[in-house]
Every structure is written in C-alpha cells, then in structure tokens.
Amino acid sequence: MMHAEVLPPEQQACLRQLGPAATAGGFHLIGGTAVAIHLGHRQSVDFDWCTQQFPGEPVNFSSSLACHGVRLTPTSLAHGTVHGSVDGVKVTFLEFKPLLLEPTIDWPEYGCRLAGLADLAALKLLAVSQRGTKKDFIDVHALGSAMPLQAMIHSYCHRFGLADFARVLAALCYFDDADDQPMPTMLVPCDWEAIKHDILRQVRAIA
Which of 3, 6, 44, 196 is a plausible cystine mate for 33, CB 3.0–4.6 Å? Predict the structure, then answer.
C-alpha cells in the first residue's frame, strides 16, 4: 500500500504530471519522499529521481521533459545531475551507477516507479554515513518497522560493495548535527529522544 497522504496537494498534482515523464526517462523515485510513500510516517515535499544511465546531456533535459508537458526550471546542472523545480516543487534527477538490489515498484495511480525498501535503506544509511539529517535518522528508524537494522546494513554493504560497516555504525550514533534541526511534519506519533535511544539500542546489539 502506498501512502499518497504524505504528499501535500501541490506535490500530488506535480507527481501526477511528472511521474509518467520521469518513468519514460528511466527514472525511479528515491530519497525521503519514497520512504514516506512506502511507510506513511511523515510528510515529504521534494522529489529525488534516480537512473543508472542519465538520458542524454543534463543541459537538454528540460527539453526532454517538455515533450511530456512538464516544465522544469533548472537551478543547477552537473554531469549526470539536474536540480530544479516543477511548478514550485523541488526536484532532483541524478545518475547513480550501483545496481539495484531489487526491482522498482510501480505506482500506477501516479504513473511512476519507486525504489524498493532494501535499496532505500541502503541509500538512507549512505546519507547517514555522510552526516545525515534528522529526517534521515527518522527515516532509518521508520524503515526499522519493515526490516531490522542488520538487514539494512547488509543491503548497504551489498549495494555499495563494502565489507566494513564500522563507519555507518559510528554515524548512526552521532546526533549532534541532527539535534539542532527542526522536526519534519510527522503523520504518526514521534519522539526524537526515543528514536535516538532506539537506534543506539539496535547499534549496540550489532556492535
């Protein structure tokens, strides 16, 4: 079951238009919005799209979307990456080479595809290992309702070809930056201190 209620009306309208165009370009949805759509735990407002092979040159990507009736306003371009907005909604399209762990999941209502939970867990742990945000920790904790932390770490190591996961375990215990950040709009009861305590408990069980 997908949770469309995590998207404000503006984002829902944007996704109905953007989803089919992104899918036609070989993109699937990742990031916190994809996690929230799967789990329904918090509101999310940005769309991060991923593909293993960027379709053409980023400088021409706006024209490609325009063929599908989507007006993209780019804010920055780099090799294999486009940041911008569609109808005021922040979007990112990026090339990401590591192979998927599992097939993407179709969401016919919005004409798009989402990464599966194993891949989303791997990406969230990657984000945490790079000094993750409060949203990243909250998403990791929410993913724990679907899979144990040990399975998430296995997905992380398998997707990125890593044997040593000490760095991500250490990062899961570092909350100093996240402590000062605002809470996202939650759709389920949530206590930040309780989330930290539970993550630390799970890390200790592995370490």
Answer: 44
